[in-house]
Write a structure and sequence with these properties.
Layout: H1 2-12, H2 14-20, E1 26-33, E2 35-36, E3 48-49, H3 54-73, E4 77-85, H4 93-106, E5 114-119, H5 127-133, E6 137-143, H6 147-152, H7 159-172, E7 177-183, H8 190-203, E8 207-212, H9 220-226, H10 235-251, E9 255-258, E10 261-263, H11 270-276, E11 281-284, E12 289-294, E13 297-306, H12 310-320, E14 324-329, H13 332-343, E15 350-351, H14 352-358, H15 362-372, H16 374-381, E16 385-388, E17 391-394, H17 396-400, H18 402-418
Helix pairs in contact: 3-4, 3-12, 4-5, 8-10, 13-18, 14-15
């Protein structure tokens, strides 16, 4: 409860803060809708089965927490909005309208701002209503086009329904429809994966988010793998599947701009790019995360995590204006580590212009550090990294093994802080 008391103290002094200082400030908004109609067997996200009667109260609390966080951070313009979950398409267009109306009353929302919604394919009949509510980008949780796997994962849609959702989404949001796809699934072969990708790119031709199926502890899938009823492909086959996806997507002009994200030029996700480049974002809803600054010190970044359980979160929001479980100031070292982890996963890499915007003058010392590091030099010689006056970035080969590269750059950064 210490974090809640600290945040409550900030809220009590909010009017004084607003009068004491004014500064133009921009943030992205993430809205977490925690409910699902079914729980997928592989998912360990913060999600709960839909609770009857909670929707109205949830919407009310989302708006209240949004207003609190906007006032607290003195955000004056919105960079992007993203409705995630859970299954935010269950929330209904009225919740989207309530959130966007509140934002419009509190700060500037540019006419062309990206407003994304994650949606289950089974909700395809609502896509038109969501567009009318203000959504202009759709992320469809297809996962795959194999009915056997959809049943195994306890998904609420079929292959036929998935294709209908892609067709509907693409018609309503041309160039702004994304699809989530899992690979490394049970019984999957390289050839079946290639054919599935061809079908997916025909149906959704602008953006693909590609994720390796991960066995998360405590999930039904983990128990099935442990007892031997589900067998997953070996690591070599999974690696080949990723490379096959690179080739197939590139053949359709859908190029990798982040390790797990592929798009035709101009269809990249603005909201996610903002995350990856260290931009500020306000998370609202149960379990949502934020990276914010306060008016008194814009150079200091605050990490905020909200209470995950919906009913407890709503109770806190009604009492305090927000449902904060934890808040802490991030050190410069912690922030730079976050940037290394997110920026190196993108094709742009660690751009010095972006780093200097967050840490004025940092790029000069960073460039010297990278240039003098034997580890970085070795990775450059292996054609896994590129280092020049613009910054540090992974090559195409480096992006394929970027997790190990990030660890090496972490070590390099730690040595600089410890010396």
């Amino acid at each position: 409860m210490a974090a809640q008391r600290n945040f409550t103290t900030l809220l009590l002094h909010l009017p004084k803060q607003l009068n004491a200082m004014r500064s133009y400030h921009k943030s992205s908004i993430y809205v977490h809708w925690p409910y699902c109609t079914k729980l997928c067997t592989y998912c360990n996200f913060n999600k709960y089965l839909s609770a009857k009667g909670d929707d109205v109260e949830m919407q009310k609390c989302l708006v209240l927490e949004l207003e609190t966080m906007i006032r607290l951070t003195q955000t004056e313009e919105i960079h992007s909005v993203y409705f995630g979950g859970g299954t935010p398409s269950l929330a209904g267009p009225d919740t989207v309208v309530a959130i966007l109306n509140s934002l419009a009353q509190l700060c500037n929302v540019p006419a062309d701002v990206e407003i994304s919604l994650e949606a289950n394919p089974s909700e395809w009949h609502k896509f038109q209503d969501f567009k009318l509510a203000g959504i202009n980008r759709l992320s469809i949780g297809l996962q795959c086009l194999v009915d056997r796997d959809l049943l195994l994962f306890n998904r609420s849609h079929s292959r036929e329904c998935g294709l209908k959702a892609l067709e509907t989404g693409r018609g309503l949001f041309p160039g702004r429809t994304s699809v989530d796809v899992l690979f490394g699934r049970p019984s999957q072969t390289l050839e079946s994966w290639r054919e599935e990708l061809k079908e997916i790119t025909k149906a959704c031709d602008s953006h693909v988010s590609l994720y390796e199926l991960t066995v998360e502890q405590g999930t039904p899938l983990a128990r099935s793998v442990k007892n031997g009823t589900v067998m997953l492909p070996n690591e070599d086959l999974v690696a080949d599947m990723y490379l096959t996806a690179l080739q197939e997507l590139s053949r359709n002009n859908i190029h990798r701009y982040e390790v797990s994200n592929f798009a035709v030029s101009g269809s990249e996700c603005v909201h996610n790019m903002h995350y990856w480049q260290g931009g500020e974002y306000i998370g609202i809803g149960p379990g949502a995360h934020s990276r914010i600054s306060l008016p008194a010190n814009r150079s200091q970044r605050l990490a905020v995590v909200h209470t995950p359980e919906p009913k407890r979160w709503m109770k806190q929001v009604l009492a305090y204006g927000c449902g904060t479980a934890k808040s802490e100031h991030l050190s410069s070292k912690a922030r730079i580590k976050e940037l290394i982890m997110t920026m190196l996963r993108t094709r742009q890499g660690m751009l010095y212009t972006v780093l200097d915007g967050l840490f004025p003058g940092y790029s000069s010392s960073a460039h010297d550090l990278f240039r003098q590091s034997d580890t970085i030099s070795g990775l450059v010689e292996e054609n896994l990294l590129q280092l020049d006056e613009r910054g540090l970035r992974a090559t195409d080969a480096g992006l394929n093994v970027v997790d190990s590269i990030v660890c090496d750059v972490f070590d390099c950064q730690d040595q600089a802080y410890d010396s």
